[in-house]
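User: I need a structural model of GNAT family N-acetyltransferase from Bradyrhizobium rifense for a docking pre-check later this week. Nothing fancy, just the predicted structure tokens so I can convert them on my end. Input:
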Amino acid sequence: MAQAHPKPGLRPFLPADVPMLAAIFTAAVQELTGDDYSEAQQEAWMAAADDEEFGKRLAADLTLIATLDGSPVGFASLRGKDHIRMLYVHPAVGRQGIATMLVDALEKLAGGRGAEKLTVDASDTAEGFFAKRGYVAMQRNSITVNDEWLANTTMQKTFGTGPASGALQ
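Assistant: Understood. Predicted structure tokens for GNAT family N-acetyltransferase:
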């Protein structure tokens, strides 16, 4: 008999979450990005979780925590009203709708804040996920992280305001 997955929950970020979120961040980069980034690039990327700025970045943004049975399993952050800054899900709970739930929530929050579009600098690993959600590639980027070059793609989703979205004319 198939076993049902527990229903995920959402809650706001708390400063005490930083160590657990750093572990989720590191596990996601280490285990999910190997097809798209070299080991040196992954090491440089993961080092971002080791500095005190990691917690400050999470606190500066609107950061949501996805939980299963009360334990954090993923997180996403919205910078300002219209930019997804981070989206990471622990590999052990991949393909269970956690990332979708987090991005759905950020899209609703962005819309509630008056955003007409939402952007994200998607890693090569995450680009397909965002494309399936209607995000369109706008530009390719190369960024330096701890002396390593990493590529990502700025993607954008425009929130419907025309007849296709059900708006009255």
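Before docking, keep this in mind: Residues 9-165 form a domain with the Aminopeptidase fold (CATH 3.40.630.30).
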